[in-house]
Structures are given as structure tokens and as C-alpha cells.
Amino acid sequence: MPSSNPLPPKENALFKRILKSYEHKQYKNGLKFAKQILTNAKFQEHGETLAMKGLTLNCLGRKEEAYEHVRRGLRNDLKSHVCWHVYGLLQRSDKKYDEAIKCYRNALKWEKDNIQILRDLSLLQIQMRDLEGYRDTRYQLLMLRPIQRASWIGYAMSFHLLEDFKNALSILDTFLDQQQRLNIIDYEHSELVLYQNQVIQESGDLKQALKHLEKMSDQIVDRLTFKENLGNLHLRLENWNKAADIYEELIQRNPENTIYYKKLIEAKRLTKEADIVDFYMKYNEKFPRAMPPKRLPLNYATGEQFRILLDKYMRKALSKGVPPLFVDLRSLYKDPKKIQLIEELVLSYIESLKKVSKYCETDVGPKEPASAILWVYYYLAQHYDYLKQFEKALEYIETAIEHTPTLIELFVTKGRIFKHAGNPIEAYQCLDEAQAMDTADRYINSKCAKYMLRANLIKEAEDTCAKFTREGVSAMENLNEMQCMWFQTECALAYQRLGKFGDALKKCHEIDRHFSEIIEDQFDFHTYCMRKMTLRSYVGLLRLEDVLRGHPFYFKAAKCAIEVYLHLFDSPLKDENAEQELNTENLAPSELKKLKNKQRKAKKKAEQENAQAREAQVKRDQHHKSRQQGDVEADAPQLDELIPDKLARVDDPLEQAIKFLEPLQSLARDRMETHLMAFEVYYRKRKILLMLQSIKRAHQVEPSHPKLHSCLIRFLQVFNENQRNFDPAVLEVITSETKSLLSTKDAKKLNKEFLDSRKGSLKAALEGAIATYQLDNKLQKEALGLVMDIDHNKYTDVDIEICTEIYKNLRNGKLGACAQSQLDAFVAQCRKRYPHAEAFQPPQEIKAQPQTNHVTTEQDSN
Amino acid sequence: MADEGEDPVNGTSDENSEKSQQKKQAKYDSGAADLEKVTDYAEEKEISTQDVANAISAIGDRRNQAALEKQAREKELLKVLIKKEDVDLIVKEMEISRSKAERTLRENHGNVVNALISLTN
Fold first, then answer.
1. Any CB–CB contact under 8 A between A164 and chain B?
2. Record's InterPro entries (chain B) (predicted)?
């Protein structure tokens, strides 16, 4: 049933040409043909032509007209599958996938066997992960088009994704059976066979997988993947000798791949550290130029052997001048004995190099290059920085800079030391210096921008980045367009520190949108991968997209957003207008007049700025339109503009926070902070069971985390206050679930137990102290006593962060009002311990902002 | 060459400057422009075989055992009696959708305490 209003042959031919033009992206031609039909008075309301015209207009970026035409077309021909299909495509281009699916279903009502519609429907279903619906649609497609390769692959894959391996495999078998009779062995076929093997492996039948792989060996052209899979299967099936042979071959092929060595050790079943070291020695002789057999034994060797190996390894690197030597060796620092040995060795180098330009005074042979001692200084600076001995680190880096004042790495390291010592300003100045030494180095440029953001210098950071961003567009905008997330995250954090919450939220939302966009971008691959037969990568992509928001980048941005929303809930921004009106009441008439004048001017200025912004927006839109013309997928719906002020004044900050929290709860469940933030949100909503949920999950991750104690105490407070109002079922849940979490329901008792059991930890002491004061403010002295004395080795976990946090709590009243003398005493202690940290500098040095407001008003009125 | 000579009118300097501007723009957009030219439309590859009919008959509509069992389980679930107040309580306390609350309650045989406990895990 094609249409209720069929066109005569001539017009029909034109209509077909519209379709062809659309498929080949020749939209202008399409419009021309549509016009030819529609100008005929008999067909000016022809539904399907109107719909196609609308679709074509949509591709040219004329969205409103597009909707108007498509809707009119549909109204004129409700029984046409073309109209419904087109409406679905339009909705799809607006990312309204649910609506689009409904349209496709309507279209299929009128033409149930239309391949194109079924195909489009299947794309939406896989995008929305309606896997069962996807399977059913793929079944229909296979029945309709059994001679198409994609039909078979799609149907098999739908079972694979549903983890129904048996059916997936039997379909692949049937299909490959057909293929093999043709004897075409090409890359695509080879990929298909490897995909089949992957499915067998995932079904858990490793023996079958191995059999299959060996049988198909001559059909697989990707020999590396073949070998790696073969080795892995032998290993998992404990065919030790065969596995060992294959990994030997693989090492021969690429002696730089560390995984091969680890697997070979596994296959040879070497477990004793000495044996493993011997193993690497053997391979070092065999492949004298390869790195892994030199570096990896350092992980296993101990004592004197470690010293000898390390000595050899370091000498080579230092003579050659390998800048990332420290980063390379950092993983050895888990072992304090190795740290000791490294330190002794490197210090001995300095002595000898100074005296005789050799690593050891008794060495024979030529002198080391003059740069060797420089790299030793450089290494030691990083070494002491890692050990948080910042004075020594600075001393060595200064010596190094004196030796060679032109080496960029030295300044970067100096900056990093200052950063770790708590001084972001000095840190950024070092990076700026480094950046100035080579302005064409993008890495240094980015690092410098990042350090600027750490020092809250947003404008400067943007200007720095602008050296590499596209001309003609503001750097901030270009960085957003390029999805430069590290910049945006650091920017959000800087705004958060500066108290510009709206701007911080804007950055967080921008990052959230990047993630949505990445999920959208998947769409193109549903057809592409199926066609190109890159099925293993395709399945990998689908699985990656499923957990996309578990990425650390998202976590960082979401954490910032949640913290800001929590802050906005605790202390909402005041309404600016109301505040001003309040002020005017206490003003003399003359001053009032002045003020009003000023306000009027400010308003005018703001309006001008707004107009400029609007103009810029229009320009941007045009720019986008011209760029996106003719691309169906790219003309994404115009998202609401993110306006900082609006974002900061939302009515429901907690609900907004939950939007960022939910992906973390499902995808970052193993991170303690997820549950601690969840608790903060639900505590403010007084949702006792959700508080319990957060506590239970946090307890699973890290039961001894000091912050968990604070959650437990507040949970008990809320519980004890509202006990009578709870539903009996809720009470029962709490009683049964807190048994293992809480030894007592008395918060004070719980707090005392906690403090007694965690005596050596300052972090625990702070949480305990806050609880002590909050539960009974008569005990302020005791509470302060716990945290005010950070010296005398009372605590083992003192660092800059915890001291800063204590200082913050002393000032914000969480521990009660503190006398200035007490604060000063505490800061003095911290300053003594961390002389570089900005947080503990005397206040007058930080707050040196000149008060020039008054002067500028004077100038304004002139 | 001859064509160019005969048509000097088109080569105004105005157009040239515009062109160079466009060129600059094009330099940045060239990658994107190339991409634009690619259509999503492609002929599907076909397998050439006479035995498709045989193969297809071997396929049939597969609903494996697991799927059938799942369906049966769904039916079982629907039979479980649940109280509206319980659903309301779950929705209010756990802030989840009604359908998810109902489902959890059914899975716990209508026992609201167990349902809530499973949701706090």
C-alpha cells in the first residue's frame, strides 16, 4: 500500500529523483525536483512530496520549515509509510529517539516489510540498547533479505549482545558455511572468523575456542591477533609448553611488549623472584637492545642484586640523558628499602662525578659527559619531591638550573615541587618561565595553562591556550568545541575556589554534554562497523559506551558540580535586586540619587553587553549552520545556552546534584567519594534509607575511611530525632541493616569508641573532633585539643591537605568559635611545617587586592 | 586558457579578496568539508549463494530456552500481590520510579522490608 494518493508516472519519476538526491546529499537538486511536483496545482498538497521536501530542508539547516512541511505532509497522507518514516527521521535528527521509534512503528503498520524502515528502526534500538527489540527487528530483516551479509551478521550479533552464545554461534556457523563454499579469504572474512572466536571464548568453552582457532588458522590474515589469542587460550587451558612456545615467538616478533614477558613467566610457571630475575637476564642477553628485560627485573630483584642492576640501568640512562628516568623508576618507590638503595646510589654518583667525572671513583675508562651530573641533580630533585622533602628538592633543582639554565624540564620540575609544597602561584611562575623558553611546544603550553588554572588565573590560562587554538574564535569557545576536558575541569575547579559558582557549573555542564555527544557519536558506527566487518572493535565500542560516564574525567567534573550544588543548597545566592533595595532604605537622598545614577549606567552597560553577546551568538549560529549544511546527523538540536547566573540560582540544587550523582553511583561504585557525596545529598534531603544506602556502600569500599564516621554520626542524629515518625517497615530495615555497621545507637558513645580506636590518625581526629563539638558544644575545648597540636609526632598522617581542612573548619565554626590567638597559633605551627604553602601565609600577603571601587565611581560620574 | 582571456569581467579584485578569505576558512574546514561529501548511503554487500533458502530454513525464529524461562518468570512475577501503600512507601523513601518499585516489591514476594533492604544494597 504505497500511498493513498499515487502520482502519475512523470511526477513519480521526479519523486524518485528527490529520494536519490537525498541519499546522495544533493539537497539543492532535491528541492528543485520537489518544486517541480508541488507547483503543479493538482499536487501542491501531495503528502509524501511535502514530507520529503521537509526532510531535505532539515538537512539544509532550516529546521522550522522542515517540521512545518513534514507535519503538513503527514496530515495530508496519514496512511503513507513514507510520511511516517520521514517524520521519524526528523525526530531522530533531533535526538528524540523514543518519538522516532514510535514513528517508525507507525510507518511499519502501513508497510510492514519495508527494509529501509526496519533498518532505521534497528539502528535506534541498538542505540537505545533495546536489545530484545533489536533482535526481533534483525530477525525480520534476515527473513526479508537472506542474501545480504549484514542481515546474518546483525542477527547473530543481537544474540551475542543478549549473551545467548549458542544461538549467536549457530547463526554464524550457518552463515560461514555458505561463505566458505565460495572460497573467498579476505580481510573481512578473517575478521569475521576472529569475531566468531571471540564469541566462543566469551561463552566460556575455551577448548572449543582453541579448536576453532587452530582449525581456522589459514583463514586468519591478522597473524598477530591470531598468535596472541592462541597463546592466551593455551595459557588459560594450562597447556604450559605450548603457551610458552607461542610467547617466545611473540617476543621474538616484538621484544618491547612487556605483556609477552609476563605471560611467558606465567607459562614457565616461575614464581620465585630470583628465578624471574634470571629469566630476564637470559632475555637481556638474547635481545640486548630491548628495554623490558632491563627494566622489569628491577621489580623483582632485592638487596645487592637490585643495587647492581639498578646501577647499570641508571648509569646508562644518566649518560644518555633520559628525562623521564624518575617516572620510569617511580613504581619501585612502593618499597622503602628500594628507596633507600636508590638514594644512596644516586648520592654516591654526585660525589664521584664532582671529583672525577665518573659514577664511581674506582671506575676505569673515559669520563662521563658533562651533562651526567645535571641529570643526577634533576633526578634527585624529583626523588626528594616524591618523598615530600621539598627543601632538599628545591636545593637540587636550583643546583641543576645553575648548571644549565636553559633546560625546560628543570623549570617544569621546579614548578611541580612548588605545587606539591602547596604554592600554586610560585608553581605557575616557574611553568610560565618554561613556556617562554619554547613557545612552540604545545605540551609545555598546556602544562602552563593548567598550572595557571591551579593558581586561579583563568584569564591568563585562556590567553596561554590561545597560542594554539584556532584563530578568530575565542579560546574558551574553541576549547569547548574541541572537547578539551582537562582544561574545562580545571577551569570549573578554579571557578569553584573563586566562589563563582555559576561559571563553575557551566563548565561542568559543558563536560557533561561532551559525554552525551560521545554517546551520540556512536550512532554512525552501527552501520559502518557492520558494513566493514570490524565486529570485534564494534562490540568493544558498544561496551565502552555503556560505561562511558565511569571515566575519571566525568568523575572529576561531576564531583565539582555536586560540591557546588551542595554549597548552593547550604547557602543559596541572595537575590541581587532585593539586596539593593534593602540598602537604599538607609541612604541619604543625595546618595540615593548617586546610587540610582550608577545603577542606571550599569544597566545600560549590561544591556549593551547583552546586545553584543546576542550579535555574537547570531554570528556563531550562522557559522555553525554554514558548517553543518547538508549533514543530517551533525545538526544537533540547539541546546539551551548555559547561563552561569541561571545555573547558580536553580530552585532545586539537590535534584541537579543527583543528576550528576546517578551515573557515578552505577559506574563508579568502587570509589569511596561517590558514596560520601551521595550521603551529603541525601542527608540534606533527610532521606534516611538513602543515607543508609550510601553508608552501606561506602562501608563496602573502605570501612576505615575517616569521613565515614562523620556520616554515621549524622545518620544517628537524624535517626534519633525522627525515630517516632518513621514507617514501621523503615524502622525494621534500619534495625536489621545497622547491626553490623553500628555497635551502638548512642552517637556520643560511638564517637568515643571511634576516637579511642584511631589514636594515631589526624584525619580521624578531625572527624571525631567535629562530632564531639556538634554532639555537645560544651566540649569545645576537648574537640580543639584533638586537632590543634599537629607536632610532637602524635599523628602519623599529617599532610598539607588535612592541615588546610582543619584550618578551614576552625574558621567556619564547625568546631565552635575560635579566638584569633588560637587560629594564629595553629597557622604558625602549619607554616613552620610547610613554609611554602600558600594557605598558611600571613593574610596580608594574600589579600593584597586594592580597593579601587571608589575611585572608579568618581571617574564615571565625570 | 582562451576562456580565461575572453572573460576578464569575472576576475574583479573584490572577488579575489573574498576568495582568499574563503580559502583561509577552507583551510580549517577542509577536513570537515571532505567528510560532508561522504554520504551515509552505501550498497549492501550480498552473498552469492544458491543455498540461502536451505540456510534460512535452518534458522527459524529462535527463542531459546532462557528467553522462554525469562518470560515465564515475568508472568510469575505479575501474579505476586502487592499493596499500593508499599509501592508508595518505596517510591517515597528510595526516590525511584513506580515501575522499578513495583518490580522490586514483586521480586521480594510483596515483602516491603526485604524490598527496601535489597534497594539499600
1. yes
2. Huntingtin-int_K, HYPK_UBA, NAC-like_UBA
The answer to whether the CB atoms of B49 and A177 lie below 8 A apart is: no
> How much is the ipTM here?
0.76
pLDDT digits (tens, 9 = 90+) for A515-527: 999 999 999 899 8
Measured between CA atoms, the residue of chain A closest to residue B35 is A631
Please return the burial class of A812, using the count of CB atoms within 10 Å of its CB with bins 0-12, 13-18 and 19+. Answer: exposed
Question: Quick count: other Cβ atoms within 10 Å of Cβ B104?
Answer: 20
Q: Look at A531 and B44 and tell me if their CB atoms are within 8 Å.
A: yes
Out of B44, B47, B86, name the one closest to residue A179 (CB). Answer: B47
Residues A243 and A348 in one domain: no
Quick one: A395 and A250 in the same domain? no
CB contact under 8 A, A730 and B59: no
Cβ contact, residue pair B56, A23, below 8 Å: no
What is the tens place of the pLDDT at every residue in A626-680?
544 444 344 445 567 888 989 999 999 999 999 999 999 999 999 999 999 999 9
- Residue A21's closest CA among A49, A44, A61? A49
Same domain (yes/no): A774, A856:
yes
Cell readout for A357 is 667525572
Nearest to A727 among B39, B42, B89 (CB): B89
A51 grid coordinates? 514530507
Q: Among A722, A680, A673, A434, which Cα is nearest to A552's?
A: A673
In a shared domain, residues A291 and A323: no
Alpha carbons A433 and A652: distance in angstroms, whole number: 45
Rounded distance between C-alpha atoms, residue B43 and residue A452, angstroms? 53
**Which residue from A minimizes the CA distance to B24?**
A471
Residue A131 contacts B, CB cutoff 8 Å? no
Give the residues across from B46 on adjacent strands: A148
Q: Quick check: A623 contacting B, CB < 8 Å?
A: no
Is A817 part of a structural domain of the chain? yes
Total of domains in chain A: 5
How many CB atoms sit inside 10 A of residue A257's CB?
16
Residue A814 lies in a domain: yes
H or E element, residue A73: helix A63-76
Q: Are A572 and A565 in contact (CB under 8 A)?
A: no
| Mean predicted confidence (pLDDT) in A194-209 | 96
For every one of its 121 residues, what pLDDT tens digit does chain B have, with 9 covering 90 and above?
Answer: 444 444 444 444 444 455 555 555 555 555 655 656 555 555 556 665 556 666 666 665 555 566 677 788 888 888 888 889 999 999 999 999 999 999 999 999 889 999 999 999 8
Q: What's the DSSP call for residue B46?
A: B
Using an 8 Å Cβ cutoff, are A102 and A74 in contact? no
- Neighboring chain A residues of B32 at a CB cutoff of 8 Å: 627
Dihedral class, residue A630 (left if φ above 0, else alpha if ψ from -120 to 50, else beta): left
Of A145, A164, A470, the CB nearest to B28: A470
DSSP code at position A575: P
Other CB atoms closer than 10 Å to residue A9's CB: what's the count? Answer: 8
Last residue of some domain: A300, A324, A340? A300
A148 interfacial to chain B (CB closer than 8 Å): yes
Is the Cβ of A736 closer than 8 Å to some Cβ of chain B? Answer: yes
Query: Which residue among A629, A689, A729 places its CB closest to the CB of B120?
Result: A689
For residues A21 and A105, state if they share a domain: yes
Size of interface A-B (CB pairs under 8 A): 112
- Please give the residue range of the domain that contains residue A480: 469-565+644-653+661-668
To the nearest whole Å, the CA of B1 is away from the closest chain A CA by 31
- Residue contact A696–B29, C-beta within 8 A: no
What are the CA-CA distances from residue A683 to residues A409, A677, A686, A717, A730 (Å)?
47, 10, 5, 11, 16
- Does A242 touch chain B if contact means CB atoms closer than 8 Å? no
Distance (Å, rounded) from C-alpha A709 to C-alpha A770? 11
